[in-house]
Design goal:
Blueprint lengths: L33 E3 L10 E3 L2 E4 L5 E4 L8 E5 L4 E8 L2 E5 L6 E5 L8
Parallel strand pairs: 1-2
Antiparallel strand pairs: 3-6, 4-5, 6-7, 7-8
Length: about 120
């Protein structure tokens, strides 16, 4: 079973007070449809997710800025590094190193097996 990250859920009304600058791709774990729960007070998304803790597998993984092998590269994460799994689609996982990022996509096979 995978352990979940421990983040406190917002206790009061969540709302925005004006325009918010969109972060650069590969930084904060924020998409138009989904965002890390820790960003709920500052960013609007259709849904928020409480991430699951996982690890990068036996080889380093370079984050992709989109779910394509030819997408731009983001940060490279070390083998065995702890990450937060936010979403899976097909053979791709959207992951982050925490609510401050970086974030991006890796093939599911790049993650260590669940124990």
């Amino acid at each position: 079973m995978t352990a979940q990250a421990s983040y406190s859920l917002p206790e009061d009304i969540v709302g925005l007070n004006g325009p918010v600058e969109k972060p650069a791709p590969g930084t904060l774990p924020l998409r138009g449809d989904l965002a890390h729960i820790a960003l709920a007070k500052n960013y609007l998304a259709a849904h928020y997710v409480i991430p699951q803790r996982r690890r990068i597998g036996d080889t380093a993984a370079t984050l992709k800025l989109a779910m394509r092998d030819d997408a731009g590269n983001g940060t490279t994460l070390d083998a065995g590094q702890e990450i937060e799994l936010l979403d899976c689609a097909g053979d791709w996982a959207w992951i982050a190193c925490g609510p401050a990022g970086p974030s991006g996509y890796v093939r599911l096979g790049m993650l260590a097996s669940e124990q």
